[in-house]
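check this one:
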Amino acid sequence: MSRPRFLKTNMSSSQQPEWDDVLPVPKLSFSVASVLVFCLALLCFANSYDGEFVLDDSVAVKHNKDLLPGTPLSTLFAHDFWGNTLGNRSHKSYRPLTVMTYRWNYAWSGSLHPEGFHVVNIVLHGLVSVIFLAVFSVLMSGYQVDQESARPVFASPRAALLCAVLFAVHPIHTESVAGVVGRADLLCALTFLLSFLMYARACLSPSSLASYRPASFSLVSLLASMCLCVVSTFCKEQGITVIGICSVFDIVVVCEVDPFQWLGLKKAKDSLKKFNRPPWVNGLLQRHLILFITGVSLLSIRLQVMGSTPPVFEVDANPHSFVNGTIFRVLNYNYLYAINTWLLLNPWWLCCDWSMGCIPVITSLADPRILADIALWIVFGALIFRCWNGDLTRNRRILITSLAVLGVPFLPASNLFFRVGFVIAERILYLSCAGFCMLVVLGARQICYKFHSTARQIVSAGFTFLIVVFVLRSIQRSNEWRVPLVLFTSGDRVCPNNAKIQLGQALYYDSVNNTDYAMIKYRQTIELNPRENTAMLNLAVILRRKGEILEAEQLLERSITIGSVNTETLMNLGVVRAELKKNKLAEESLLEAIRQNNKCADCYFNLGNLYRDTGRPTEAVSAWGNATHIYPQYTSAWKNSILLLDDLGKYDHAIEVGKTALKALPKEADLIFHVANIYIMADKYNESEDLFLAAIEIDEYSARFHQNLGVLYHRWGKNEKAEAAFTRAVQLNPNDATYLKNLQLIQAKIRNNV
């Protein structure tokens, strides 16, 4: 990436501002610094390239039908981030451009290979870090004018490099980079920064460079900035906050206006009291009018997409936002802000999910965690006082913009304007981390300036140590994000009371058939969250397989009682009741499941099994027929129908069903085998032979295929072929006494005939 045009300067190194020289950082060219930052960013998270899809990746990518090539592209703009139709039950996260990049990933690889998705994320983080180098160069340099050329100069290579390096290696970014869902944050940040740089270019257009406070600006660059803002917002909702950053930059840095004076919070100087709308004020107001129109337009579009109603979240997703009473709600919100700040300061306490019982709600004024709120108020109160007190010096301008970069992108996640669906999400801090890095570098600069050489050595050693530790922690943390079990285990160490983390471990152990440990984790999940339907359902399924039917029934009934009524729960309850011989209740459960979802093939299949076991064969065949109508590849339903009709002696009907089944499943050898047996019973030997030979062609090592082919030839009177088929069956399975006996009988018959 080339350095932005407005950042170039013709000043000699001796004229370099003393502000930047104070920092103990080598001065590198922009290109060399960019390569360094990019390599460090890749180094920290490169080991996540071969990770699996974890957490929300499964919903947003793996099971998102909007990624499939056959899905019309227009559906991306009609669905939410998770591939669901925008409506009252939708999450209403509208990020069509991010989903489009997932679709490109799928098209390039031809399938859902996670490696390609992870590599794109890693490269995007490297690009964002490099662009931040340019942005930090703007934000940390202040607005200076070259005495010779009267051109503004933004030149803080040391401060910008240090900020960019801290940002690139910060472990808080692991979720955004190592989790595929985090691409929304990466794309949002990329276009966010480009939008800001275009706005800065607009403010510092060639026509305005000769003036101290530019009155004119480049309309083209400004409109390009707003277009990038729209793109950023369609990557993730947080993108709209670039308007706030541009506004603060314009007021504080470009026009050098003290915002506290404009807000009436500070007594203005006489020179400010007497001004009479100088030209630069008109330019500032015009630029802000465009910012305002863009912001209102984006909010209007967003409200229209949401259906003019915010998304509805469960209490477990964000319990702090459901607290009664203004005082306790303020205390809880500020405690969450304190935790977010602590994660930036100490990124060792990281967790893949902070919902449910991870951070208990503050319900008492005696709760010691209120001290964290007080500490937060003291620190930020001191920073705001420092912003307010004194003249608008360069340090104050940087401090104000640092706090803006820290706080403004965080506003959509603050619960102040609307309820969000999470307690804490580390990926939300991706942009805010830049403001944190600016504060750290500004503080280090002040220490070096006051204490000179001794402090410079200590600060240099401190930053070196911090960067090395951050790199190692980022590598270690991104490695945890590669495998679901490792990720959930690390989360268990931080938030053992989080039911979602316990459920994640249970689902993993269940998927690898470690049912004993899965049961332990399912029970822990239910203990932590008695309304967790998934844990109840899956635990009931395991209990049914282990023969503990009564407890399985109790769990499913409890799940329905607490309001978690869904098709799968009702269906499994019907199956359990059928095994307990509660046939009437079982039928009621299965029929209710079908009423809730008449496209549930499994429901019809289990209903058919119930009818078969209770002596209602006609209804059983009808139910299985409904299952295969919904899902023509439902092999078990076809087999059950054919076998039941065979038992009833309805060979013609069975053959008719078998023909239909083979049209849907022409390569299903086991199904072919069953239909071939029906043809034997119907004395249709030619058709049976064709099917047996077709089945053997698919699976030539199946002993039973050769055995039944021999039975066919024996009944057909083709004894030599029968002997050959029986011989092959015995060769494939010499331990089967039936196969050996049939071979001996046919050989004896052949000898007797001779």
In short: Residues 1-17, 206-211, 270-275 have pLDDT under 50 and may be disordered. The first strand starts at residue 144 and ends at 145. Residues 28-452+460-471 form one domain.
